[in-house]
């Protein structure tokens, strides 16, 4: 894309130094998605204790309802995010956030069990926002650092938004109206950060030289990319599916997990633990921007994912032997889960496109992975609602995390072996070490 093709609205950033543009972009992306989480996660701070819907624990039903909506949005996004033009992204973000707030109002006003539809529609509205924001960051020399900043937003927001939800509940806001109240607090900032995103210019010529041009993808292009790299992509998708399940349980049932660990969480606990997780994940994944060679960066990101698996197993073993307390356990577990999760967001698919010089975009691959991950998580949470856990969910969570840590390791090793054996994957001559 040449300079003449750039949108007029971005001209005031075109003559700025690349680092200034990157700083603007990461602040805008971080802020926009942080605010998006305020429409998705505060309600999980409520426990809906001793309440059932259709004979199942109400919170499990609500988690599944929102997750099914979110999952369906991911399937829609496989096509929609791959094909959308850049100029339509800002309007799409604002429209989807507006629909998410309307759905939370429905959640508050509708009688049970119709209120469940409110969270389903909420997930359906929010499921494509991440892909729209990600489109502003991909294909750049600093993409890993930018995307690491974006991913730090949902790590921090997960805890911060629970803290906001707990704070609103402490002020007496009913559990059913708390989510809409939290969303209203962030509606203005969400629009501001989206406006900032709309001013981010497309990748420049040097970005295109080091990475590759990112273009909308039709059905034929999507099918061709999957066909050429099917086994390797599916191995990464499998790893992503597994950590999505494990991460989702830690996030959606955080109050129950903290209580089961013997340390009921105060509102600040959610934020404090996630600040440490976000810092570690941001450093580990953001530093991959320093690796210029796309192939080496790709394999380094798989190594980061494997490090996360080691931390998951270490956290579980330490808890089992009584070596780590609840806070350290949740931090180590969070680091272990988010390292591979964020590495796939920031580096694996980004460098895969760059090293193969595929014509396409990061959003397509991410939404293939997201659709699979959230489908599996929704199914597991639904099953968990019927399990005889006798009021103590911790053994179920611990056993699941053990399985996820081991299986994720196997998936990442399989992806490494597949791409390492492919001598046909090109390494562009102009990209140095």
UniProtKB/TrEMBL annotation:
Signal peptide: none
InterPro entries on file: DUF5690, MFS_trans_sf
Membrane spanning residue stretches: 21-40, 60-78, 90-110, 116-137, 229-249, 269-291, 298-317, 323-344, 364-387, 399-419
Pfam families per UniProt: DUF5690
Descriptive protein name: MFS transporter
Organism from which the protein derives: Singulisphaera acidiphila (strain ATCC BAA-1392 / DSM 18658 / VKM B-2454 / MOB10)
Sorted UniProt keywords: Membrane, Transmembrane, Transmembrane helix
